[in-house]
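1st attempt posting a full record on here, be nice pls
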Amino acid sequence: MSPSTARQTPLFSWHAAHGARMVEFGGWAMPLSYQSGILQEHLATRWRAGLFDVSHMGRFKIEGEAAEDFALTVLTNNARSLELLQAQYTFLANEQGGAIDDAYLYKLAQGEFLLVVNASNRDKDWLWLQSHKCAGVELSDVSEETAMIAIQGPASASILESVIGKEALPEGRRNCCRIARVEGQPLLIARTGYTGEVIGFELFPKSEHLPALWERLISLGAVPAGLGARDTLRIEAGLPLYGHELGRDHDGNDIPIFANTFASFAVRVPDRHDYIGQARLDDQRKELQLIKRGELHTPLGDRILKRLVRPIMSRTDKRPFRAGSKVFRGDELLGYVSSGTVAPYSWKPDREDNAMETGEPLLRPIGLALIDSTLGYRSDPSLVLRVIDDRGRGMEAEWVPSNLAGANDPRPG
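the predicted structure (as tokens):
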């Protein structure tokens, strides 16, 4: 499928008119980057505010007197714990403890939820949810009528204030939501996003109102950013992506959900309401706790969590890590790269080293890799890895505690 035959978001014409490089992604024609390029869009998000069209993602309404019970059954997080206008990260799990998808659940009213899923999984997720539908639940796909954009970065709150007023912003905690009004129209605003930014919002306007809102945010200083920067940002923050750190591995096996650090925030401890995949996920949780404490002595072949997703980085090479590349320690194969890229340093440079002014940002290869769990959970600063791509080219890497933006100054020495 090419961009010309793929589905189009309400902003397709705007992207095309403003020089975006369009690609097919999940069946949609989406901007990979604009004329400024991926690296500048990445830095603009970390330093100011990046603006992303994410209308390609699926949006489902779950309504009815049994809506909460349904969400408790088909999703791994605790929908019962949500107060009105709160959100939570969650999974659609299979019985084996693998991810059908990762998603975000928003509680809009009593007995009314919005579930946001990945674009490539929209049709699959819809059929799976329908297959588990019970009495007292109504499901509706509102992906076409409701659009979705994300504004992320330190200046995003002040930009939004100029549109809706400070008092209309959601409470200053992640996952809080509010319904504001823009030119008389309701606008759901949530303190959510997938870039690793502490300050960031996702907005859900009606599709016909999106272009005007998008233009207004840009006029106030938001910088349009495409899928390329969205990917470098989420890898830098260590966030998983379905099809890479979630779903099936390169051997066709389910990747256990708890191979990802963020599972602990999205999978509830078993309670009085069972959910799909609960038994296997609880086993994964218990094993991960033993790994974290250094108390798991089960041979690798007998473990549930044979590999864990870990951030990696290179200080010596400039080529990007590539998904599928093998990761070695000496001659020992530890796993493979699940996501890789080259990202600009996200610390803000001083006068003598101003990457934005020179147009030459300093770069580092970063990635996520599924690595044998026998190495433990905490990284060893002296652990030197070798990444070999499918052409046999090698590059040195190290296993780092976190790729989260701003966590460490990544400059060598």
